[in-house]
Amino acid sequence: MKRIFIHNPFFRILAPPVFGVFIYLLILLINNNVGQITTLISNQEVYVSIGLSLISFESMRLVIVLLQRFFSMEPKKLALQVFTTTSISVAIVLIAISSYFQWVIGFDISSRELWIFGTLFTLTTFLYNALYIGNQYLHLENTLRIEQEQKLRESLESEFLSFKQEINPDLLYDSLEDLILCLHKKTDVAEDLIDSLAALYRYQLVHRQKEFVSLAEEIQAVQHLIRLANQKHRQTIKWINKISETSSIQLMPGALITAVDSVIRNTLISPDAPLVFTLSQEDDEYFVLHHDLNDKLQMHPESIAAFQRLQRSYSVYSDRPFVQVKAGRENYIKFPMIMIEPLLSETE
Asked: What is the pTM of this model?
């Protein structure tokens, strides 16, 4: 409620003098006494108008505060608010101006002057209520938007945590099947597969609680993934890294692994159509994973869902979007560069 303008101390102090002078000028215009403007500062009637404005504003504010304790912002109750504030405020103003004329000036106020004051302060109540209701609805709308943004952020953070902590069961099953096929005849290959599988899952388990890892660490894990996938695809998956400095680049744990795994599972791969990944940097905003498109007829739903979670999770930490651009027969997966501000040293 403190954010509504009628409760602002500056408004309560400054508005009555400004509006009181405005009311006084209107009365002069109505009575055709514009010449009295030259005595504006010394004229007692100016201060009477300011006092009446203060009485009007504060009485309306008090009525609104009392009504808001019992009623919400519904159309019928808003009509009750306008009627109540108008009736009480105008009645108090008319009593005050009548008392001023009777006890200060020494005679009763005329019906014409009473009608002028009543009309002006009735319009005042309408203006005051219109400004208040507009401000109230704007405040409620902003509050709803903030709540929606908070819920969206909580949802994204939940998906982000889910993305970091998930373990890829399809990769595990595929790797175990490859192990079964070569376990008895190719024990050295089986040992290499076991080492790669253990290293890959160890990396995911160790880094699942971290917010960021270096690109260098992620590339090592991706190479284990490619080594496992090459057992099935007969060494037709290649990896080319064109980024010289990878230790300073940060990304979400498992982001590059998820992207590479999704591409492998949804691409037709053969000796005649090998899959070549190329990692490069685009300015200071993105690093890019590139490969040629050769999509399967039926996409792997779990890997697509994991890739989509990755896209949404990136919005938690970066204002730039995680994007996938398909141009002709080429696919570009762009990872936003996450900038981490260095902490101040203890000596500073």
From this structure: 0.53
